[in-house]
Specification:
The chain is an alpha/beta fold. The chain has three domains: 4-60, no CATH class; 70-120, no CATH class; 128-224, Metalloproteases ("zincins"), catalytic domain (Zincin-like). It is 41% helix and 24% strand. The protein contains six helices and ten strands. The protein has helices spanning 34-43, 45-60, 110-144, 180-192, 201-210, 214-224; strands spanning 4-9, 16-20, 23-29, 70-73, 76-85, 89-92, 96-102, 150-154, 161-163, 168-172. A four-stranded mixed sheet has the order 4-5-7-6, covered by helices on one side. A hairpin with a 2-residue loop joins β2 (16-20) and β3 (23-29). α3 (110-144) crosses α4 (180-192).
Length: 231
């Protein structure tokens, strides 16, 4: 029997099995007996095993903050190359991301070095994302004639962007891991929420008007979500 998280809801009318981040989740109505759920999991064990294996393989190809590790940037996996000098810096090439730490870090433990790499890359991603998003908003805001009251760029664990009723937009700086056209989609998506603060048919129609390939962008994010988890 698989270990699983059971989430019951009075609004749910059917059972849904999900595999997310290497864990099994069961969403079920309040009235469904536990025995029925366990039998369903037993019946679906082949499918669940395949999904868990696939996600584990994706996680193995995900982000590792070490020399020779990997990280996603602009939709491509790059190898981290670590060196030491008298300053901290990050430089991108075709297939590598050169991370330079100060020389005094060289004598520190591997765990301490990984912490420094992670923080340096987080700062670099945020700075890069601010510059990219500013340019995209300069392009899309006049095009859609939709203008936020403020913009924030920060880290989110489980979302790429958000919009609230005050017209404030927030974006995840880890968008820099995704292809440029996917960033376009997220920007358009959040701008459209300024007009429709929901996911109604009118909302998706507006998104499609300015980003016709939004379904492909959504699929890319869904397909790669396990690989884009920031450890």
């Amino acid at each position: 029997m698989f270990e699983y998280q059971l989430i019951r809801s009075p609004r749910r009318k059917s059972i849904a099995l999900q595999v997310q981040h290497g864990k099994v989740k069961v969403r079920a109505p309040l009235h469904v007996p536990a025995g029925y759920i366990e039998q369903l999991i037993e019946d679906k064990k082949s499918w669940l095993s395949a999904k868990l294996l696939m996600q584990q393989q994706e996680l193995d190809e995900g982000i590792t903050f070490k020399d020779g590790g990997s990280i996603w940037l602009k939709g491509q996996q790059k190898v981290i190359k670590l060196q030491f000098a008298n300053h901290n810096s990050v430089n991108e090439s075709n297939d590598t991301l050169l991370v330079t730490l100060k020389e005094n870090v060289q004598s520190q433990s591997t765990t301490q070095q990984q912490t420094k790499i992670k923080q340096l890359l987080a700062d670099w991603f945020k700075t890069s994302a601010i510059a990219v998003l500013e340019q995209k908003l300069l392009h899309f805001c006049p095009l859609l004639n939709l203008h936020p009251t403020s913009i924030k760029v920060r880290f989110y664990k489980a979302r790429w962007g958000s919009c609230n009723s005050r017209g404030e937009l927030s974006f995840n700086y880890l968008l820099m891991m995704t292809p440029d056209w996917v960033i376009d989609y997220v920007v358009v998506h959040e701008l459209c929420h300024l007009q429709h603060l929901n996911h109604s048919a009118q909302f998706w129609s507006l998104v499609e008007q300015y980003f016709p390939h939004y379904k492909e962008a959504k699929l890319w994010l869904k397909t790669h979500q396990s690989q884009l988890q920031w450890p």
